[in-house]
Amino acid sequence: MGKAYFKQKCGLYAINIVAACGVFIPEQFAGLGKAAQDCGVFRLKLTSRQTVVAVLDEAKVSCLEQRLTELGLAVSPYGGAVRAVKACAGNSALCPRALGDALDLGIEIQEKFLGREVPKDVKIAVAGCPRGCTDPLCADFGVVARGGGTFNIFLGGRSGSSKPLHGSLLAGGVHKEGVFKILEHVLKQYDELALPKERLAVTAARLGFEAFSPPPGLLGDNSPQESADQDFLAFLNGKGK
Amino acid sequence: MGMSNQIRTTAHVDLEAMIKPLQNICNECDYNGTDDCKPAACMAGFALRSLQFAKQKGILDIPGAVQHIPQSDMKHYFAENIIPALGETCRQCKECQDNHSPDCVIALARTCLENTILEENIHYPGSVFMYLAALRKQDQDIAQMLAAELQRKK
C-alpha cells in the first residue's frame, strides 16, 4: 500500500487528502485553505470519492503533509488498500429522506478500515436510502439503509473500467454491528481467495458470491430480524399489550 | 454528527387516525370479543394490531411484517366500511416514492384493506395520486368512493 502522491504532467505533485467521508469542520476547511496558501498549492480539486486533491511543488509536499496532520486530516492510501469511504448526508440530523444513519456508519467504517491492505483497491459506499446518492451498487462493498436500524449489503460493484458492474445483494436487514462483521469477513475472504491484484468483483464472479456469504452464526444465533419477527408475532397474537 | 431526532418514527404520522376506522370495522364484526377473534388471521385485525404495535414501539416500519399478512381471511367486508380506513392510509402516507417500504405500517394497513375489497393488491407507486390512478384501472367504483372519501373534510 502506498500513499496518494502523483506526479502530474506539468511536474507538480497531486496529494489526495481524506476527511471524514468528506465532512470538514470549519476550522479544518479554513485551515486547509491557509495551509494551501502557505505551501504554495496551485489548485485544490474535489474528487468523486469525497476527498480533496491538492496540486503543488514536490518540495512543499512534506510541508503540506505536516499541516494536514495538525488539522486532523490525512493523505489517502493508494494501491491495494481500502480507500476513502463514500457516505451520503443521510442521518437523523441532515437528509430528510434518510432511512438510517449512513453518514455516521460511513465515518465509522472509514475510521476502522481505511488503509487496510487488500489484494486490490476496495471501494466502499454507504447510502441512507435506495436513491443511493453515493452509488453503493457501483462499489466493491455497498451499504444501503433500509429502515428500522437495518442495512442491505451489496457486493461486487465496480463503476470504472470498460465493464462496469452492479453489485449483488449479499445480505439484507443487517444491523449496524452486523455490517462491520460482514465487512471483516468479506475482506478476510478476499485476502485468502483473490488472485494477485484481482478486484473483488472479479473474485466474486470467478468463485461465486457464496464464497463471501456470511457464515451461519456470524450475526449471532438469534438475528435481529428473527427477534423482531417474534416480538411482532407475539403482539399480533395478543400476547403483547 | 449530532442527532437531533430519530429517523422514520411515528412522530409525523397520526396512527390513531388510522386505528379508529379499523376499530369501527372490528366493532361491527360478529367475532369481535369472542374466542374466534384471531387478529393474526384477519385482515382488519392484522392491520389494527400492526398499527397498535407501531404506536407502542414508536416505529414506522415493522421489518418482515408484510410476509405475515394473512392469506386466508374469507370474511365478507363492506366497501363502505373499508373506504374510511383506506382513505386514512392515503391521508397519512408520506409519499416516500423511491423509499417506499411494504413493511411501513401505513402500507401494511393499506395492503390488508385492499385484500378485503379488491381482487388484487395494487403495487404501491409511492404517491397517493398515482395510487388512485392505478386503483381506477382495477375498480372504478372503489376508486370513486376513495376519491370522494379523500375530498371529504376531516
TrEMBL record, chain A:
Keywords: Heme, Iron, Iron-sulfur, Metal-binding, Oxidoreductase
InterPro entries, sorted: NasD-like, Nit/Sulf_reduc_fer-like_dom_sf, NO2/SO3_Rdtase_4Fe4S_dom, NO2/SO3_Rdtase_4Fe4S_sf
Species lineage: Bacteria, Bacillati, Bacillota, Clostridia, Eubacteriales
Organism: Desulfoscipio geothermicus DSM 3669
Pfam families assigned: NIR_SIR
Protein name, per record: Nitrite and sulphite reductase 4Fe-4S domain-containing protein
Molecular function per GO: heme binding; iron-sulfur cluster binding; metal ion binding; oxidoreductase activity
Domain annotation Nitrite/sulphite reductase 4Fe-4S: ranges: 79-212
UniProtKB/TrEMBL annotation, chain B:
Protein source organism: Desulfoscipio geothermicus DSM 3669
Domain of life, per lineage: Bacteria
Protein's name according to its UniProt entry: Uncharacterized protein
